[in-house]
Every structure is written in C-alpha cells, then in structure tokens.
Automatic annotation (TrEMBL):
Residues 1-24 are annotated as: Disordered. Belongs to the DtxR/MntR family. Homodimer. The keyword Ribonucleoprotein does not apply. The lineage of its organism: Bacteria, Pseudomonadati, Pseudomonadota, Alphaproteobacteria, Hyphomicrobiales. Keywords: Activator, Cytoplasm, DNA-binding, Manganese, Repressor, Transcription, Transcription regulation. The keyword Methyltransferase does not apply. This is Transcriptional regulator MntR.
Length: 150
C-alpha cells in the first residue's frame, strides 16, 4: 500500500529532541533486554531448586554454550552474577534486583494481555518482548486498567 493511500491519518512529527528520545529509549531497552533475560532465567533456575548451569541456560534460551559463556563473562564484569569452578552461576544482590524488576514487568505485561483475552501461551511469549520496552508509566496504566471496575 502506498503511503498516500493511508486509511489512518498520520500525526505530525514531534519536535526532534522529543522524537529522538523515543529512539534512544528503544536502543537502551534493546541493550538491556538480553541482560534482563539472562538474570531472570538464572533466578528462575535457582528458585526451581536447581543450579543455574551454563548448559541449562543455553538450552532454555536456545543458544550455543559459547554464547552463554560470553554473556556470563559480561554479567560477571557487570557485577550481576558470580561463578564458581565446577558449580553453577549465582546472582549477586544487584543481579537479584534486576531479575526481580524484570520478573515484575513480565508478570504485569502478561497479566494485562491475558485480561484482554490473549491466550496464556501467546501472552507469555509476547510479554517476553514487551517487558523490556514498556515504561513505568505504561506499566502503571496496565495495572490500573486491570483493577478498574468493568
């Protein structure tokens, strides 16, 4: 469809500074999404009663073990995880905080999607991407919408 045949009118472009802020926030969200996914998964594996081992992380994320090893090195350098020889991966206090914040965002987005009638499986999958890009203001609006009388 050609742009001139739009059925929905386009809003005028915002001021350049305002416009660029949206793109800056999205770039930041993409950078932090992978870190959040790793620490949230590590927390889940530990809470599930298992050690968070490199092989398990790779299997659950669907990536190769060398990819996980590289990210774990980064997470160690960032002070989010610690590793012990012949043992699993452990979250530091900072890592636990990131994991908890990510989990809360995920649960809020997933619950909101479910409240709209999205299936459990689709809501879980979609929330995995949305959780990293949603603002605190939008999360609060989701919470209010879910608790508002109908």
């Amino acid at each position: 469809m050609a742009l001139k045949n739009r059925s929905v009118p386009r809003e005028p472009l915002p001021d350049a500074d305002v416009h660029s802020e949206g793109f800056r926030q999205q770039r930041q969200a993409r950078r932090s999404a992978l870190v959040e996914d790793y620490v949230e998964l590590i927390a889940d594996l530990i809470e599930d009663g298992n050690e968070a081992r490199q092989v398990d992380i790779a299997a659950r994320l669907g990536v190769a073990q060398p990819t996980v090893a590289k990210m774990l090195t980064r997470l160690c350098a960032d002070g989010l995880v610690s590793r012990k020889p012949y043992r699993g991966v452990f979250l530091t206090e900072a890592g636990r905080k990131v994991a908890e914040e990510s989990r809360i965002r995920h649960q809020t987005v997933e619950a909101f999607l479910r409240s709209l009638g999205v299936s459990a499986e689709t809501a879980r999958i979609d929330a995995e991407g949305i959780e990293h890009h949603v603002s605190a203001e939008t999360l609060e609006a989701f919470r209010k919408a879910m608790t508002a009388p109908r």
